[in-house]
Input
Amino acid sequence: MIIVARKDVTADQLDHIRERVEAAGLRTHVSRGETRTIIGCIGDEARLAHIPMLSIPGVRSVHPIMRPYKLAARDFSADRTTKVQVGDHAFGGAACLVAAGPCSVESQEMMLQTGRAVAGAGATLLRGGAFKPRTSPYSFDGLKDEGLRILSKVRSETGLPVVTEVLDPRHAERVAGHVDMLQIGTRNMQNFALLKEVGQLQRPVLLKRGMAASLKDLLLAAEYVMSRGNMQVVLCERGIRTFGAETRNTFDLAAIPWLKLETHLPVVADPSHAGGRRDLVAPISFAAVAAGADGLVVEVHPDPETALSDGEQSLTFAEFNGMMSDLKAFAEAAGRTLHRPQAGA
Amino acid sequence: MIIVARKDVTADQLDHIRERVEAAGLRTHVSRGETRTIIGCIGDEARLAHIPMLSIPGVRSVHPIMRPYKLAARDFSADRTTKVQVGDHAFGGAACLVAAGPCSVESQEMMLQTGRAVAGAGATLLRGGAFKPRTSPYSFDGLKDEGLRILSKVRSETGLPVVTEVLDPRHAERVAGHVDMLQIGTRNMQNFALLKEVGQLQRPVLLKRGMAASLKDLLLAAEYVMSRGNMQVVLCERGIRTFGAETRNTFDLAAIPWLKLETHLPVVADPSHAGGRRDLVAPISFAAVAAGADGLVVEVHPDPETALSDGEQSLTFAEFNGMMSDLKAFAEAAGRTLHRPQAGA
Amino acid sequence: MIIVARKDVTADQLDHIRERVEAAGLRTHVSRGETRTIIGCIGDEARLAHIPMLSIPGVRSVHPIMRPYKLAARDFSADRTTKVQVGDHAFGGAACLVAAGPCSVESQEMMLQTGRAVAGAGATLLRGGAFKPRTSPYSFDGLKDEGLRILSKVRSETGLPVVTEVLDPRHAERVAGHVDMLQIGTRNMQNFALLKEVGQLQRPVLLKRGMAASLKDLLLAAEYVMSRGNMQVVLCERGIRTFGAETRNTFDLAAIPWLKLETHLPVVADPSHAGGRRDLVAPISFAAVAAGADGLVVEVHPDPETALSDGEQSLTFAEFNGMMSDLKAFAEAAGRTLHRPQAGA
Amino acid sequence: MIIVARKDVTADQLDHIRERVEAAGLRTHVSRGETRTIIGCIGDEARLAHIPMLSIPGVRSVHPIMRPYKLAARDFSADRTTKVQVGDHAFGGAACLVAAGPCSVESQEMMLQTGRAVAGAGATLLRGGAFKPRTSPYSFDGLKDEGLRILSKVRSETGLPVVTEVLDPRHAERVAGHVDMLQIGTRNMQNFALLKEVGQLQRPVLLKRGMAASLKDLLLAAEYVMSRGNMQVVLCERGIRTFGAETRNTFDLAAIPWLKLETHLPVVADPSHAGGRRDLVAPISFAAVAAGADGLVVEVHPDPETALSDGEQSLTFAEFNGMMSDLKAFAEAAGRTLHRPQAGA
Output
């Protein structure tokens, strides 16, 4: 950490600043410039995190040098990317993996039908919400335990692993008993009680970026999970909230290569929430894979027009199959493989 | 709701759109313009919420007419503002109320000392976090149950009511047993499991706006609490996340008068998190009250330089007392009173 | 346009609203719902643009139905995409075109060297700024007329067409005399005096999106140019300003497919300003092309470390050549060709 | 400036970094920490502005220490606030000054009528646009030279000084010949050709913050004007563009006290564009003055319902007079005076 002193800092104030830093176990080095005095702090910067530097008299600005996350930082892993295994496939390997399915679990039949269709098109993971976070208390909020039961059933009938969102720390263990991967949704990215809970379970976590979360915030949220012992975290870019009103969210494409440089965790994209419109799903998907994403999470519904949630952004089976067919060339251009069963849907 | 059809909509598609709307119990009225056909939907718009209109063939755009919240809407209350009683005072009345105290409960002694100081300066509510949401898992996250115990003790010794944040639905009832008002923090504004839980308790709720929450989202979060039976909600503007990097957040001043026009719930401001800097707390406070805020939530610490969190933005006792002294004239200019005990600290 | 009346609208107010609309030459149609009264306005909505509807007593909200741009709208052109010819190639055709070169023209030698290198790698257009907009008045702001002279010279020596930014309406004609395409920069996207001026010239225009411009604003800026008679406009997404601080700007990837659906004008991307970092240029470029961009504008410099501006985000010749080599597969996956000369640099 | 080296920086790279810095005339000081090496640069940081540090091998991050503006910085002026004289009054003194008038000059009669009304209510400056920047090329864009003639006439008849916007560097001198203060609008805050032009005129400048301009960008725009010799700049906060859609812009209240701490230039607020709604103008005005603003710019129109632009956010004469009457107490609470003629309108 580098501390820049105010122009009018006194010798006593400087001494006091140094004492606070040294009391935390770091060394200090003072450089007096023509117009500014600078205090370099040498040692483990994390030990300074508790000190409100800007409230110490004489301090003008503070410049952290170290990253605030450790386990999530690229340096932590010798491998290029951590592999997160879900069923027979792993996020973070040569294959670009696709999770697909409806926003909400609506019935066993529709989940079975969807599972078969998306698996036929190349998805290796079925998504579907049993507990749904909804902006309005009057909207459909999921089948809950009945939804979990359906997911279990569909999983055993189709052999397709399942990912679903967990909203409440009280449900985490129960949900983990029914599915293969736990999703932490956008609105809960900084629900620390929930992050700690899934950090104690041995289930892969799909961590979606918060609507106003910086990429550092996202990595710190992953760090919450990892610091509790669960290292199987997949990060998901799904669009952020900006002034742009033409699309549901603003898909922050550059987050993907930035994260790939900064962390060893796999990174996937959710093109459905990003664009919020069916006709934007394919181009956003192609772009995400071109930019290096390890996979996608795509909303697919047997009949989007009757979907209980997110119908506007859900693909039909035929649209999904067409998109997967076109995606193959982009995955290959990116040096990736894309799973496509012999007899596609 | 008004539905605008695509230019090339067919008669069959139009019929289908009308059937979907009428099946939900509304009437439709079709206007054919020179370039567009418009379907007006007459009746209870809420019944259309489940239909993904944009995924119905022939629909180009959809224009909701009704507000998505009911209990929180101004129309719901004949009174100008709902009064939310906390201890001897009520938010939403003639008095502008101030809650003050440290970010975190650090010890019984500092809370007692702070409680007496802020009460002496005119605060009618003591704030202090026992459970702290922190962006990094390595930061101090509160004394937890010990913090609650301290708050109970200080409350009984000073007679000052207490507000503290609740982070986890599993703690809600326990926290409510120790304090007078429950705070839902910024990062949990859309933690719906938590909102439902505090909606079932009979404790006033201080609901802080999320960093990327629209004002409609904020009112819908209040609606979650209210629709469970707890009507005692106070809304808090505390700054939003924008491109502006000079202040910790961007204080959305106009949210205050907008909310006062739109809802009957009291509205307060948090100048400490908004600006993130001690020297911005007073001007933001004056402005909030000038714009019609029903109160303030201010961070105050006996020794900000040693605070375990938010020291940069915490006022000293003397600074808080000075601010309250200056605030009086602004409150009066706004037609409000400000509580100031005879023998101020 | 649809006008929603206030709940308590009087019959006189309703009559007055209708009179204002009808005086502008439109017909009105009133629907009385249970809770709201709605006035549909039938006819040319543009005639209502001058009326401040929300200031008319009894009006609660206004819902425009028509797009505010005409010439830029997809409907205007029967072709899928307008072709904008620059030199031997056209933006908007089967080929994905790349403009490349330094941020600033620094000398004739470096421009010649760069022109040859980027042409060898497949660029069909040389970029370089003679007049530079700089946030600080103390930064290098271009060689100005000497820069134009260099661009002319390099253009005639290499045969490569040239694009450069015009900042000042007084320079527009002079700049147009030296180059093949005029760039309107981000900070000038709503410099209407400048837009009108280039609208009167017969030179293709590269119109960069403003940092806070909605996509509708961008299309209206294009409409300024087109409504003066110059239909040769290429739109450029280059990142917007959001809370995201990890990259220089937030590249709004979804703007590309959204624009391709909404307008007939070609759309290109600037990956250099979007990411602001050399190692993000290639992934953003691949993504833009995968999402359907008609081309790219890339900063390339013989020695980025000594560049007078934007060195951090400029590719070396070798990096540019490598990127173009990898780009080919993405262009082909998108059904596009990419120009690559036989004997690459 | 402080340069942080990459973990794996080589001795040769370190030498090269130091050479680049020292060649610019600064001294360097290297601190080797346990995990990072830091190069402190001692001397005039502005000399490093041309060097793209991040493109030098071995550099990981760069931390500027000095402010990029000089003339606009608070340090530059011994006075607390620079006084900018316009007519008989000065911005930046004890009085809080109000400029008022319509968005557009529509006729001589309406300007005379408005001038008299706003002067009667206490305004000391008449505003009105002769050249109007409009998002759409099809909107009314001002009476232009006829508008200037009207402003001159009204100014001489009423004695009220006049402020109007200048859009085009070719008009700057002509406009300055007719009015007392030149406004640079939001969309032109970084129109550097225009800033340089008004920097050469001896007319006070009202510089409005750009929609996506950081406060540092705003001060650098002021620096453009000042560095050309014109030190009479008044800064204006008018709202920024964020995700917030409930108000036309997001009024960044904290910008006012932040600017007052950072610069010696007067700071005013435009509550009309900030809120975009007539009923938000008064509370935003009160708040701005409470937070320390030196004045206001308010849209007032004889008949907002027929205004050719911005009718939704324009006050009637009676509303403006009422607002000024209420404003007095807030100005006084802020230690300011507010001009109110004996016989108010």
